[in-house]
Write a structure and sequence with these properties.
The chain is of the alpha/beta class. Helices cover 26% and strands 30% of the residues. Strands 1, 4, 5, 6, 8, 9, 10, 11 and 12 form a nine-stranded mixed beta sheet that branches. Strands 14, 15, 17, 19, 21 and 22 form a six-stranded mixed beta sheet that branches. It has a three-stranded parallel beta sheet with strand order 16-18-20, with no helix packed on it. The longest helix has 17 residues.
């Protein structure tokens, strides 16, 4: 199977961190965020994966080179101007057209599931439904009120998108950043910039096309769009691991997959994840949760509490609390 990992965009809500690295290349649990969609999509047995790029292209390329397995053929689809989710698929069409079904995921789609076969089941559901598209969805507080979602009929088809129900008897669920698309999508994609949800799928729903929702109630999707949410997601994942929950076991599986390339070492009994190559002075006090990245230096007189120190950052004599250091 071929897959596209959508990484174009400026990551404006995570500035100033995205002035140094594109958001998909920023570490989450000491791995580039794009490690998560690659991990999940590769459970489908990827032959090819396309990473689209725009902002700080080289940082996405380097992260992808670390993450992808040798047997996966990698392609890069660069956007000189941001083309949107639909335009990103259109721009990568020549690397995706060879399969009757292909997968698309957001490069910052950090999810955990207790089911290692989640995507195999989703693929089977998509094929049996003969759908134009199948979207991974899950419950999320505030969806359909504070944020847009997918409005799902009782038969599992999607009636529309947004904050307002387009039809009676529908339930609003969160689109969890992953979808399967049929090759029938190609003539429906406009050239250039477009949004795959609102410019392509929603008009096709109105024309009677079958767009499905694959519901996973035990799925956990993590918001990482700003510093506050990023830190909350980090803490939540470390707690899941510490408490040895099924979702924590999933996080450990992903960490183990990437432990060697990224030199990870964990002290999860103390809510800490520290890269082997991090240099931390023996006087440093660490409280609460902390993630310390590769080739970082935390000097004498420093303290860390409820924070993340990203790869290659330096902390010298500072009290770092409830923030991210780059």
């Amino acid at each position: 199977m071929r897959a596209l990992i959508l990484s174009a965009g400026l990551g404006e809500r995570l500035r100033p961190f995205t002035t140094r690295r594109a958001k998909p290349a920023i570490e989450f649990l000491n791995m580039p965020m794009l490690a998560f969609p690659y991990f999940w999509l590769n459970t489908l047995g990827l032959s090819d994966v396309v990473f689209n790029t725009h902002h700080l292209e080289d940082t996405v390329r380097r992260a992808a080179m670390h993450v992808a397995l040798p047997e996966t053929r990698m392609h890069f689809s660069h956007e000189h101007e941001v083309l949107g989710s639909g335009g990103g698929i259109w721009n990568a069409r020549f690397d995706l057209m060879k399969d009757p079904t292909f997968a698309v995921a957001n490069a910052d789609g950090v999810i955990l599931s207790p089911d290692p076969n989640l995507f195999l089941k989703m693929f089977d559901f998509h094929e049996r439904g003969n759908a134009l598209a199948t979207l991974l969805v899950c419950p999320l507080e505030g969806v359909g009120k504070d944020r847009s979602g997918a409005w799902v009929n009782k038969d599992g088809t999607i009636a529309g998108f947004g904050k307002t129900s387009p039809a009676a008897g529908t339930e609003c669920l969160h689109y969890a950043s992953y979808m399967l698309l049929s090759e029938k999508i190609w003539p429906l994609l406009p050239e250039g910039n477009s949004n795959i949800i609102y410019d392509v799928l929603e008009p096709q729903i109105k024309k009677g096309a079958r767009i499905q929702a694959f519901r996973a109630d035990d799925l956990r999707w993590f918001e990482t769009g700003n510093v506050e949410d990023y830190l909350a997601a980090t803490k939540a994942c470390l707690e899941l691991i510490r408490d040895k929950t099924p979702l924590g076991e999933c996080a450990l599986d992903i960490l183990e997959r990437h432990a060697q390339p990224f030199g990870l070492h964990s002290h999860l009994d103390r809510m800490q994840l520290i890269a082997d190559s991090a240099e931390i002075h023996k006087s440093v006090q660490i409280n609460g949760f902390a993630v310390v990245g590769e080739n970082t230096r935390v000097g004498m007189g420093s303290s860390l509490k409820d924070c993340v120190v990203l790869n290659e950052a330096a902390v010298n004599g500072l009290n770092v609390h409830n923030t991210v250091v780059i």
